[in-house]
Amino acid sequence: MGVQHTFGGVSRVAFPLLAGYAMDTLGKGVPFLAAGAMVVSALLLTKSMEARAHPPASAAAKGA
Fold first, then answer.
1. For the whole prediction, is pTM greater than 0.70?
2. 62 in Cβ contact with 47 (< 8 Å)
3. What are the pLDDT tens digits along the chain (64 aa)?
4. What letter would DSSP give residue 46?
5. Are 24 and 32 spatial neighbours (Cβ–Cβ below 8 Å)?
6. Backbone angles phi, psi at 29, to 5 degrees
7. Which residue of 2, 28, 33, 52 is most buried, as measured by CB atoms within 10 A?
8. 31: domain range?
């Protein structure tokens, strides 16, 4: 739990600074596009983990 809080605190400081820098140098839409890409990648990761956590019923029956 401590590691999670550490990364959460660092992200609350570092990412707004990085987003501000990206907005100034690359354009106003870049931080929003980057955030959208992170959300999509998190959704894809969640879907792949869900498939591993809940195998199809036929595979579960074979293992039992």
1. no
2. no
3. 789 999 999 999 998 999 999 999 999 999 899 989 999 999 999 988 877 777 667 655 666 5
4. H
5. no
6. -90, -10
7. 33
8. 2-63
